[in-house]
Every structure is written in C-alpha cells, then in structure tokens.
Amino acid sequence: MDYKKEIGEVFLKKLDEMKSDENFNDRLSKDEIFSYEYSKFMAQIQDYSNYSIKRGDLPAILIDAEVLPEAMDKAILEVWDKGISVKTHYDKPGDPQSKEATVMIRIRNPLAEPRLYKNYPGSGAALEEYRLEVVHGIHNHWIAPGTEKWTYTYHERFFENQPSENLNAPDRGILISRSKLREALKEAKTNNWGLDYVNHRLENGYLDIPKTNQIAKIIADLRRDITSKGAQATTWMPTADPGLESNRPCMQIGWFRSLETEIKGKKGYQVNLDMLFRSRDLYKAAFMNIWALTDFQRSVTKGLEKEIGMPCIVGNYNDTSFSLHIYGAYFNKETKTNEEMESTIARIRKTPWTDRAWSLNDPDIPHLEEMLEARHVISAKLDWEKKTGNKGTYDPNLTTEQLKSYPYPMEWDE
Question: Are the C-beta atoms of residues 290 and 68 closer than 8 Å to each other?
C-alpha cells in the first residue's frame, strides 16, 4: 500500500473543505493556513513516522536553534510529529506507546538570553540544585555502594573517575593497580611481611587505581595543543555499567573543540562542546541537562582561558541523543500529565517559542528569586547533613532571615 499517496489524498480533501469556508481568506493567508493545518493534520495521524520510514527504522532529526528555549520547542514538536511510536520498559499497563527518535540539537548561542524554558516541569530551586550537582559536585557523597541507588553522578564520573567491576559492592568494586600490587608484593617479600601486609594495603585502598580528573586532563591537553581533537571525557564504565538494570549514565561523552576566533580585537578561541547521550527523557530531563551542561561548558572555557592566558568564549553547544523520547505515560489520557502534554503541543503549534521563554535579565521572572535563594538553602541543607546525616533538611532552629543569608561557597556564583 502507498501510504504517502493515501495520506496526500486525505489531506487534499481536507484542504478543499477548508477552502470552501467563506471566512478562509479573512483568517489567514493561504500559505499560513496550509502550513498550520498540514502540521496539525500530520500530528493527528497515529504512527505517522511509520509512513515516512520503513518499520524498524529510528528517525534521525536535526534541530538548529539560536538559544535554549527555541531548541526545546523545536525538539518537542519534531519528536512528537516524527518520532516512532514504540513500547519501552518504563511504560505501565494502559500507557500509549512512547515517541522516540535519534536527535541532534545545535544551539548556536547557548548562554544567550532568553535561557529559561517556561515549560520546564520543575522549580527554579530544583534547576539550580541540579546545576550545582553537575558543575560543582554537591551530591557526589550521595553515591552509596551496596544500596543499588546512586552509583554515580556526572560530576563524579568527570572529575573523580575510578574504574569498578561492581558499583553495588560495599567497596564499590574498585579495580586495583597492577603496578601498585607488584610494589606491595615486592615490599612484603623484601621485608618478610607476608601476605597480611598486602591485604592491609588492599583494604585501605592503597592498591586502588587512582581517581582521574578528566576535565583537568582536557584542559592540559588543550594547553599542550589547542587544536587537539582528543579533548573529551566519558562517563561510561564498561567494566561495570552494562550489567546494571538501572542507575547507569545516560550521558556518555563530552567533547570540547577549540577554534581560533577574534575576541574584542584580539586573537582568542571559541570553545564548542558536543555532548552525547545514549538515552534521554525529552519532556522532563533534557532542559535540565542542557541548562547545567552549558554552564559546565562555561566553567571549562573559563578554566582554559586561565590556563593558556588567552581570551576564550563559549561557542556552539551540540547535543546528540541516540534515543530522545517522550514517554507514553505523559500523554496517557487518564493522567494529569496528558493535559500538560496536549496543551504544550497545541501552544507550540500556534504561538512562537518566545512565548515560552524567560530572560534572566528580567528581575520579575518567578524562577530567578527561587534560584538565588536556593544556594543559601542548599548550603544549609548540606551542612546539616554533615552534622546529622539527614538529607533534604536544614537546622530547624534557623530563622527565615538566617536561611536567606546562609553562607555558601563563592565558586557557586562563578
């Protein structure tokens, strides 16, 4: 069956019906009404993507945008319209099939305003906490061996990467260094200390492969050769991650590419960042990820500028997801999220992306005050956790005014 021909015939019939409307010419131009109705019509066809590609194919989509909210609007609509409909292991009984595609999002000016996306389903405080988690590692201590909960953070994998064979083991299954083992065996033999000495060295972590700060190595690599194409960091741990049912990194690789440019009349470098994800929730996770990672890009760019003594600026941000998806649960008609999803898609079709964007330069945006206050609250919570071991709360004796002025690390502002 020629599905494209069948769809075309149905659409032309629908367009003829529209043209018979006596108010057609008064409402919109023919080009505008054609574009809008065609887009709306195609989106209403179940499994539309299966008409444009053969069964078993995963669509590949390219999104090009100037700023972050524009990219989010385009990505949501493209995956909704062109993604395949497919079941996932996260779907619950009764959920529709999820929408999925391979997507590359290119943001030409990732730190430019407006940056905040109104359709982000979270608070300004949660957004700031996630940024601090990725850029400054405030939750690295939440990694809990043996609990099958937190086995990593992105910051830990980038700045304190340590190979393991079993992340859920009480000792995290850290691999040992053969050179250190040889040294310990030699010492034991030379001094007649026996294997107890080696076991002691093993238990106290002396024989562990040391942690690797991949970001420091990236900056060192670019200092050695600013044209290097090897300035990358990875989160995936092939000795441990493949065997995990969950709690394994979605983000895989960050690749920095520095290219010569002119900055305020001087020779400098534009630092572009490509991030690769194996899998990601578009509707609820992608904005938070990109928000934090573009700030991470800014942080590395600043570090490189200091290291090489030349001006550097943040360049393009390219974000590729092998599987970017909108879960079926989000448009299950029995859930509140379905109403949010339907209204989101409808607004994206009918109004410009700027209607769903906020600028941090606007002092009246609701998220801004939340984000600034969050740093004080987060710092208070972390300090209280160190004292009591209790997560997610702060000293109940703190007054509102004390909490608002609670000190936090200066680097959180940088």
Answer: yes
